[in-house]
Fold these 3 entries.
Entry 1:
Amino acid sequence: MNWDQDITASLSIKYPIIQAPMLGITTPEMVSAIADEGGLGSLPVGGLSPETSLQLIRKVKAKTTAPFAVNLFTHDIPAIDLNDADIMQDLLEDLSEKYYLGYERQDVATFKFHSYKEQVELLIGEKIPVVSFTFGIPDETSIAQLKATGVLLIGTATSVKEAVLLEQQGIDMITAQGIEAGGHRGTFLEDGPLPQVGTLPLVAQICKAVKIPVIAAGGIYDGSTIKAAAALGAAGVQIGSAFLASDESLAIPAFKQALQHISETDTVLTRSFSGRWARGIRNKFMEAVEEAGIRIPVYPVQNSLTTSLRANAQKKDNINFTNLWAGQSAAKAKQEPAAAIFRNLLMQIGASDQ
Amino acid sequence: MNWDQDITASLSIKYPIIQAPMLGITTPEMVSAIADEGGLGSLPVGGLSPETSLQLIRKVKAKTTAPFAVNLFTHDIPAIDLNDADIMQDLLEDLSEKYYLGYERQDVATFKFHSYKEQVELLIGEKIPVVSFTFGIPDETSIAQLKATGVLLIGTATSVKEAVLLEQQGIDMITAQGIEAGGHRGTFLEDGPLPQVGTLPLVAQICKAVKIPVIAAGGIYDGSTIKAAAALGAAGVQIGSAFLASDESLAIPAFKQALQHISETDTVLTRSFSGRWARGIRNKFMEAVEEAGIRIPVYPVQNSLTTSLRANAQKKDNINFTNLWAGQSAAKAKQEPAAAIFRNLLMQIGASDQ
């Protein structure tokens, strides 16, 4: 394997393979398993309270002494449109009644969202070596604080323009997220339609536009796709869907089962669950929101509105009313320990005995 | 360069690089230039009359003795919905009046479409060694006729399922067309939403599902993307957009110029021009059809309806009312001879002195 640049030294890892931070899926156990294998485990704490974030970080630390990354959501907190939220809650109530989902109407005016800014200090305090982020660029103060203590920053770009901006802001590495990726789009420049660029051309073009290392994300799941990323000029890969059905994943049993039967064409982009574009397996909830034709509140308002409904569905192992984030290479994701999945990837690229 | 399988011998070419058949763009001169350089030139004759097809084939033959491929559209001829066509013509007349496009209302009931079946005999008569096709699978009789005379067949797939079907029908090679590709989607299984799978996961997954050679298409434009295709398991690549602005391209000057200023995010999928999904640079015509919110007649009805309007726009070098098919790696397509573009690709993969 010839990578364009060596990022293993600066990340203190053995292999330039990053386990994608998947909020709601990734556990501290998954992160520590990958860290112990020599990859970069990523703990997602986007939107969580400082207290919960700290608990999760401590849980990883209790399981491994290897370094790992923590992932933030660096969006601005939006104003809430109470009218849009009201109309959406009518729909959620209707669905709840029809399908016994136990939705209780919420007082949206009292919603309070956590900013990544509340998490910066604790990350520094906990000596987290790598902070990755998505949905934006941290403000200059946060960047300066993190960099002053030697934290390495990895931003997410879905277009060449976003990648160039991240480099200009002093970010150390870029995750180039192709349209194939499961979960939320990291898009933060909203000056036109959602960028929908495939991993292959996106990585190739970002690698030519910036000097900092680029990590390829989206559709990567095996030896051939990892090697392709290296050929495109990437310095590493980020892999999410391959770990969706792992023993350490929070995915409900019916979701893990569904992954065994989908094909590469079964995921779509939707704003229905969170207010932000994300890729997942098409299901009844997406269709119901689309059919209703109502305006979907912005992220994270819609995300909060649908939280209890999704949680209730998950408790019932019901895949029709919770988000099934998955990428275009998620089919047949293996149901085994994350470490075994990781080692299999290493074997496929001939790196297992390094 | 290590390709998974060697297709150069069976295609009688030197390099497994195929110039994409781009109807309305590709000239006999482009085909012969690529053929002379040792690549596979592809002459598009989809939907053309046998007479025009023969003329174009003879033109290529007058310029080169090297083998080349001919590309067919293997769709069924649909019934015409006169009402939909009528409503669409109202819009075309409105646009024409507003923007001086000289549209003349057509008698749709007299439309006659050519089937690829009318072209099979002449391809055999002309001893065309390679026939590629898109929009479907030729009927069994046509496949048998072509194969009986030693013609090599290349089909187009946009999903694993389509690829498997092509292999089952005895097709010799598969072009795996990722969502990044410019121009028409080759999709022919219409049992759900349009497959929108990226080249990277699509090629990787098709290569694992079939035994016949796979040619990667969509987003490929330089050495790094060609090498990535090889890493994915492809036996060759098909490249279109890189030749869009070549001297031998029929693209109007304003289109060639526009290519110098777009980015990887500026193309979108549309049915507005032809009735079939295709990727091109967003322009006024697309937007006008979308805004009208009317039903778009199926392919090739809509294609015929918009032909004169597009031709008139092209005469005026007006990019607002003609299709600007282009892929996600079309930006800065070089304005030089196709042979120079081809040789540059060879240099980038270290193959120029083979």
Entry 2:
Amino acid sequence: MARIQARVLRGFRDYMPEEMLPRQKMLQIVEQVFLSFGYAPLQTPAMEYSEVLLGKYGAEGDKLLYRFLDNGERDIALRYDLTVPLARVVAQNANLPLPFKRYQIAPVWRAEKPARGRFREFMQCDADIIGASGSAAEVEILSLGERILQRLDVGAFAIRVNHRGVFDGLASLLEIEAPDQKIALVRTLDKLDKIGREKVLEVLANEVGITAGGLEIVSAFLDLPTGDLDAAAAFFSEQNAGAAAVSDLARTVALARETGCGESLLPDLSLARGLNYYTGLIYEASLNALPEYGSVMGGGRYDGLMDIFGAPPHPAVGISLGVDRLYAALSEMKGSESASTATKVLVVVFGDEGFVSASRLAQELRGADFATEVYLQPKTKIGKQFRYADRKGIPFVAIQGSDELETSTVRIKDLQKGEEGVFSFSDAVAWIQARL
Amino acid sequence: MARIQARVLRGFRDYMPEEMLPRQKMLQIVEQVFLSFGYAPLQTPAMEYSEVLLGKYGAEGDKLLYRFLDNGERDIALRYDLTVPLARVVAQNANLPLPFKRYQIAPVWRAEKPARGRFREFMQCDADIIGASGSAAEVEILSLGERILQRLDVGAFAIRVNHRGVFDGLASLLEIEAPDQKIALVRTLDKLDKIGREKVLEVLANEVGITAGGLEIVSAFLDLPTGDLDAAAAFFSEQNAGAAAVSDLARTVALARETGCGESLLPDLSLARGLNYYTGLIYEASLNALPEYGSVMGGGRYDGLMDIFGAPPHPAVGISLGVDRLYAALSEMKGSESASTATKVLVVVFGDEGFVSASRLAQELRGADFATEVYLQPKTKIGKQFRYADRKGIPFVAIQGSDELETSTVRIKDLQKGEEGVFSFSDAVAWIQARL
């Protein structure tokens, strides 16, 4: 067999233990919060019939699908997000008790041009409520998001909220009727944070076809003071669709605040979100300390999407976490841990004859709830065993030589502080616990 | 857009919440044990260059790969197992501190003919030690497996153990020299549990080309009393490779028993395992109460596999759990839970004006560590809200009507027992806790 080069595909990557461990810790917290709010896990296949996915993400999305014929000549594709598979599941299971609250944390695949921090396989982390209209479900989703960011301990954050109907109102002021032009308007406004106001107005003029008079209206719209829903209401006449949207949004925000959540909510009429399927509330969260990471969490109401497979129309509202951004932000805030293992104690081994006692000690330490390894090459010199602990970031080493065995004690060394002591087993446990 | 049928691909399935919840619980226990032994998580991509996977699983395996050209005309394939990607990672990371102990719990894809209980996407759950030769690593893997089955509470089980060298010895007694014939011998013996002894001898005679004299040797080999390594040692002459293998196996078993593990170990020279790459210890676990589920866990030493990408040779030993079989066995033993949610308490809502107090109560209940839902369509009749709790398997309903609000109490109903009471909040918490 010719030698094959060991390499990963362009746009893909391995997650080594030192990165997986803190990522898993983060996702566990998220999952706990999902479960505490009554969201249940759902798992859909990695592959779907292509027709299930095609046309759901726009022409651009269709091109980014990993799509192929399987051995049975079926036209199949890897999932592109978790929302369309959810819509399929809802359509297939007419008897689901509603509201159906599910979460899914799973990789999705998009054949995008790889770039720094952008991969063709990445984790999505979504929770959605299917079958609940009105403000209550929206307040819950906002409160869920707020709780997650609090539990992740990311410091202060803002959840900017808006309502898609505001853009119907704006489009009507601009006398835009063609759906494509309205979509282009929203997409362009969505770039505000990235390209800035001037460039947005330029694109609106040159590419979206907004007139000079229209640009003045957009300017006035962008001048609306952030957080001031009264000013927003005054901007639209009562007959304008924007007025109803602002009043809807005001109700949701007030209710969220009344329930004791919503401290971080900031109504912001310029928040657009790029996806086309939103129909009501939209929101995005960013971290005060690291605004450059952009949106770390977002979502909204998408009442029209769930019936793409001919199921009865279901109202829907959801949340999606930017796992990679959140992880990067957390690493920057807290410093990345260098341990490539969760092991807390390495038991060193004195030759083959020492393996049995070392294994027994390890089992006792595991019983005391310390992840514990025995060094598995018993003939290795003690110095090399210590270096192994050091390289892996294992904080403690336990040693039971003939002296300690005779006196039923154990020697524990704290590698970070360079301190050690000889203890009874229960004292050793307490000593380690106090230092972890 | 034409209406698309909502369906999953043949050989694939959705895992709905009622199944995901107990599966996740099971995998969490497994993961905790992995971590407590110092195994760290690794995540490799779902896709690899086809050349990385081709030829590693035999001609049959190559045919079962999901293989296709991506948009950039790269020849890629979905992972078929977790072992070959691990070998790739080890080859790519020459500076990994050894032994490298990793686990991975992830789906793999094989285009097999779908059958009852056999899917084209299924979860693998592997832990491996790379870079440790000798008995210590083998004892640890056995002890890890034993601990997992104990923690999963599957009742009594047997871990049958053998050594691949035994078949080198047997092949030499049968004067088999061609590698293919030896592989066929092992593969046929591996079917002993499935097709029985007579059929095995028939296949050996007709398809593997074993002579009548050879069949007598095989018969004597199969007659060796299970568990008796002295008899096994006596079967092979001292010069025969089988003798060294038996002595190796005896050392590992003795060491495992000395470390306090290994109670369930049962040496069985007829245990073969189908995969070709094993070089030493092999083992498989089955449940005493449900032998018909076959092997629920297995693995062995495969010292030759890790250098397929030209990395320096690394000894390796691993464990693989049969997630689906274990889950099915656990469900049969304990009865499958019918809850489609982890929610413990549903807070019913009395109209829009009741949503704020209901949300506050839910937050308090979450704070007391009960997963709690608020019913999200506040205008819904109370009877329908109760039916929702019932259909989802939520055990408790909390009610705070005007009476309870006035007296700062909460009414809790135990839906399973049909009992209820009005409590202060802290008494309510205690009442629920006592019944969970």
Entry 3:
Amino acid sequence: MVGNKKVTIVMGSDSDMPVMEAAGKLFDEFGVEYNYLISSAHRTPDKTAEFARNAEANGIKAIIAGAGFAAHLAGVIAAHTTLPVIGVPINSSSLDGLDSLLAMVQMPSGIPVATVTIGKAGAKNAAILAVQMLALSDEGLANKLKDYRKKMADAVEEKNKSLK
Amino acid sequence: MVGNKKVTIVMGSDSDMPVMEAAGKLFDEFGVEYNYLISSAHRTPDKTAEFARNAEANGIKAIIAGAGFAAHLAGVIAAHTTLPVIGVPINSSSLDGLDSLLAMVQMPSGIPVATVTIGKAGAKNAAILAVQMLALSDEGLANKLKDYRKKMADAVEEKNKSLK
Amino acid sequence: MVGNKKVTIVMGSDSDMPVMEAAGKLFDEFGVEYNYLISSAHRTPDKTAEFARNAEANGIKAIIAGAGFAAHLAGVIAAHTTLPVIGVPINSSSLDGLDSLLAMVQMPSGIPVATVTIGKAGAKNAAILAVQMLALSDEGLANKLKDYRKKMADAVEEKNKSLK
Amino acid sequence: MVGNKKVTIVMGSDSDMPVMEAAGKLFDEFGVEYNYLISSAHRTPDKTAEFARNAEANGIKAIIAGAGFAAHLAGVIAAHTTLPVIGVPINSSSLDGLDSLLAMVQMPSGIPVATVTIGKAGAKNAAILAVQMLALSDEGLANKLKDYRKKMADAVEEKNKSLK
Amino acid sequence: MVGNKKVTIVMGSDSDMPVMEAAGKLFDEFGVEYNYLISSAHRTPDKTAEFARNAEANGIKAIIAGAGFAAHLAGVIAAHTTLPVIGVPINSSSLDGLDSLLAMVQMPSGIPVATVTIGKAGAKNAAILAVQMLALSDEGLANKLKDYRKKMADAVEEKNKSLK
Amino acid sequence: MVGNKKVTIVMGSDSDMPVMEAAGKLFDEFGVEYNYLISSAHRTPDKTAEFARNAEANGIKAIIAGAGFAAHLAGVIAAHTTLPVIGVPINSSSLDGLDSLLAMVQMPSGIPVATVTIGKAGAKNAAILAVQMLALSDEGLANKLKDYRKKMADAVEEKNKSLK
Amino acid sequence: MVGNKKVTIVMGSDSDMPVMEAAGKLFDEFGVEYNYLISSAHRTPDKTAEFARNAEANGIKAIIAGAGFAAHLAGVIAAHTTLPVIGVPINSSSLDGLDSLLAMVQMPSGIPVATVTIGKAGAKNAAILAVQMLALSDEGLANKLKDYRKKMADAVEEKNKSLK
Amino acid sequence: MVGNKKVTIVMGSDSDMPVMEAAGKLFDEFGVEYNYLISSAHRTPDKTAEFARNAEANGIKAIIAGAGFAAHLAGVIAAHTTLPVIGVPINSSSLDGLDSLLAMVQMPSGIPVATVTIGKAGAKNAAILAVQMLALSDEGLANKLKDYRKKMADAVEEKNKSLK
């Protein structure tokens, strides 16, 4: 189902897309193939498990899971694969994302979820983290990361100059 | 595996038993058949899903799930059954159970977890809640609940008298 | 007053209706008879107690109570009945519902409140939980729950397909 | 039952006595008549309501209520009397008293609870607050408050001197 | 300055007036004389101390202090008088009033602040609490409190009827 | 009273000394003259205000104030002086110092408190911060700060080497 | 780079300028020379370190650093200078500034950050704190601080009078 | 300095070793070469930056950083390398690790830290996550991860059986 994509960006509902598409855009920028998957830890648990179980065989290298409320999606996926799973807490409930953060990051001993910033900044950071993982065996990507870092630094300096 | 038990008390690790056995003791007091199951949302996800999927057919009426940290156990079970699932947040991490409380109670729309008090008081309350559900179609149990309530009231009054 | 309704949805003020009506709509969908009751733990405590005391005799099977701020309503009702009481924390104060969540879920040993998600998602989940309780002795409802679950899963898959 | 006491110190369980007796000791120091009452918002709700309803007629001037977990006791008493009710949050749950604080102080519009510090410092402060209320129409007490304040100041200065 | 007013409503800035005027309106309803005072714990500490020191001699019976951020106003006033001081935490900072709540309610042993609900509901509750204190020696006020309570109950019942 | 000391370390009670003496020890190490003062924002408000008002004239350059619970001490001192005031939140209440942190750091616009880490690490950091201020016009102290920084770095490297 | 400015106001991104310019405005009012610097702890770490390392030699006396999210900027600067560093937590993430507050104030033993109020009030307070430090060896500034304090007090009294 | 190790486990102080050694033990179990490094973001910032800058050239594939309080270590390292950085929040301050969690996970857009559970469970999970990254290009490690997962599952089932 996921072809020869390197990363799958999973979310439980299409209402999370405005946050999670920041991950896709970063992958576009880096030329990393990815796909989106809407699959819920609670509403489609078997499909979610099946996706996770087959991800490695399907060539997936890393999985990004974004979820709000009691965010189980990343943990449930991590339970069915030994690929690295990156969690993006989404602030969709009234608790500003503190609930989804704690429900993701506080995984018990044995099954990690690599948790990043709450919300859109997190979706982007999740994608960068995935690229960092892929770059461990892809020198081209490693170089792109260094360019990207340099461009970020230049942008900061540019803003600083325009102050004056 | 669960025979003709009415309630299964699930926990991810035997280290949660000192908390969760408060539920079993309450069932003993009410004469409700139950069993314990150690099954983890993350370490044995398939077994947990299988248990949940078959629970109704196995005659189970309600499931109590106790977990600490990012407590997904109750939600994962709830995703695989339409039986009522009662969650007991356990304060085993450094965050005093706030993490497990939010990871349980903040279930997204569609799949509820009936969450109770953090810790031992919660384990007992979970069992009382399960008895309340069973009592909806069991007049004997309903009467026992009223007796139990009366005994609690008497104990309060007894303590009040002993003040003087 | 509550006739042969199965569930009463109680709230302390009509300002909570926009949240709590999500419960009523769910019952409409399942064909479960219910009624709304505005009764306050603090402003009409005797009426609230009287309602709770008579609920079982009036044929009520489960009670849903929604409240914000220091949300005592569910606990006060639970103190006067042995029926299962489901609490919906409402985020009407400046604390985003954390106050009402803790004031509901942290019931001391002996009197449980089955607490669900803060806000509208919680109101809907409360109704599903009530249906799950009723379904323990109503095969028709049990089947409807399975259909509902299937429809939720189909909706997720539908959204996933429309991505492509 | 409460005779001609001026203040009743209510708690839901005798396990709260080690905290709440700080209130009684303060009253002893000020010569204010008081009594203790063990009565629970949840386990003996009718007795608690009855106490509150009759408190004014029984000559009670102020009520101090100490409770932990989802601390409803003060609010439930306040719902049944127009006497001032002072709430002492007790840190008996795993959440360090944050649950009982929010469950007391965040009373909805119309029924206040005068909430003080969590724990033993709060029990003492509750008693001082009650004395302040009584002193509004009792010049002797008002003078004792001033003496007490002076003694506290002297104790601070004494400690400062002993530093040197 | 405060003439023969019974209660002074103090706030540190006129920006708190939209919250605190809920207290004044309640006093208008009860016919209790009051005045407003803008005086800051930090910007006009001497004037605040002087007000507090003279309050009793000026016939003041209770003081209501509303403040946001690190809300010291109520505590500073309480340090200079033995009159009861009621604190209203105001949610003017980015922390939703949690900062002002803790800065008010957690007074150390010896100097209580009677803290109420955060925000507008709290301003109203502060005024009711002040009336409850005054009513201890004013039967007319005590009766008005009972009427007010009854009107609140009637309003709830009215809303309940209009549901049908 | 404070002679030609450069810094005064104020605390509300001698029970805070085990935390605050970490500040004094740091000053001993740097050869900065200081004294301790026990003075309470609430129990000895006039003495505290008087100390603050006279501090500058008495040659004091910076004031360190440590307090727990609703920690007003630093803010009250800051209200009576334009010297820099450094606040050390102390975790003496059940809320782990979150209450004292927020009651110190969230000072409203106009009167800052330079707040540092909760507890003993904070007491030491407060003293270093005071030395940093004094060093702005004292080259000897500025050099000592650089030596101290170097010693800290050496200690880290020493520990690293001893790993191997 | 920073000429003979006394204070540098650093921020990681120009999006923080609407908050941080409150510091600059205060310096304008006091006639303190300052400059702004956009430099990020994470995106331009070397430039940030270089700035901090050279700040003292460049005549800088105090550094103000404003940052949101996991706000490392102030701590990173403090690691490279022994000048006093003042941190302004900015509420740019979904957690209302609690994340940036804790990431600033909780500096481990040895390297303090003088942390002030979250947001705009904090930016202003940071500048006042810097002026207080500079005023330790600048009598003109010390007098301006007293005038400023008096003007704040007058403004409060003015508002109080306009109430009547 | 780090030879041909695959992972470096960095911590700011040897007092973090009792927590962080859980990571080393996991690597021992998997036969992954690693070393420990004590280097502080604040006390040895240049050495920390240098380590991070050279890590990739030194053959390091992933970096684990454990820190308490305002935990900047992981972010500071991440600012100087494009290798994946895994952060372990340590509960060494009075705030139970909430401060270090937020100071790690809430990294602003552009520089991710892969944050895991607070404390010892997190140290172990960090190591598993690092192995998962290495396993992307090391089939032997990938198989070991599957074996490890299976052993965890067996251990759960073993405990379940021993219940009976």
